[in-house]
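Final report, Chapter 2: Outcomes

The project's central promise was a pipeline that accepts a single protein chain and returns its three-dimensional structure in a standardized token representation, suitable for archiving and comparison. That pipeline is now operational. To close this chapter, we reproduce one record exactly as it appears in the project archive, with the input sequence first and the structure output second.
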Amino acid sequence: MPDLISKLQYKNYERGEFSHECKRSLQETIQLIKDFPWETQRIHTDIQATGPSVTVQNDRGEYLKVGLYFNDKYCLYLFDRYGHVLEFHTPDLDSVCRLVEDFYNGCLDATKFEKQVFVVAGRGHFATNDFIYKASVWRMLALSWPFIAYFLMFVYFLILSPFEIAWIPALFVLPIAWLLARIFVRYLHYRKCFLQVSNANNIFKFGIAPHIKTYDKRDIEKIISYMPGGNRNPNLFCVFEICFKSGEIIKVSNLIISSTTFLGKFEGINFEDGKRNSLRVL
């Protein structure tokens, strides 16, 4: 019987976040399931595919995930090779362990499972995510589109305007062009940046290769967020200054990671609103 990859997920983990991932024998995985703190993890836990669980993966790209269900039951999620997510509910760990043994032996009876039709990001609940974030052209364009739209509009007016009044739209074209150029220059800087961070793991990495440093969230004193005019719209440019107790400061822009995602990664840390506009510190 081959060893299979198994891994753990706790209730404060996000989708695709796992720990203690390695190859284990059947006996080791069974012990992992029995030792998992099911009762304490059940408290205030949403019943869903991402949550307190033990996941096993075979060489065919299939996953069997042992999670929690209502009324002190357990839910086994099967992600098959066709991308389907199926569920089976059982009241005790003994039947869970028997199904895990069948999965190890390659003889799991999938007909016992009920197919789930409405599952968002099915594979994402089972596969391990590396949580690496980098700037992209598409994110830059998505954040810049209001400025691009205004720029094109005033260029259009400039082209159609008589020479005598062409200076009026030109007054708008030039500063917007300068702003777009500044955004593009900052994108060229941020596209070299590497950020790896997840919700539950206190350790994260940031920097420009090959000078990528490892940081600890517990060493953060505060995070200063700079939004346009104090606006928390996630579709506008945002810059976050992560201030460490050592005095070191690093800047992370939502050119790299969306502001909503960033805020979720650093829950429990003191956030302050910056007094400058984000476009000045971009």
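Archive annotation: The radius of gyration is 25 Å.
This record, like all others produced under the grant, will remain available to the consortium after the project formally closes.
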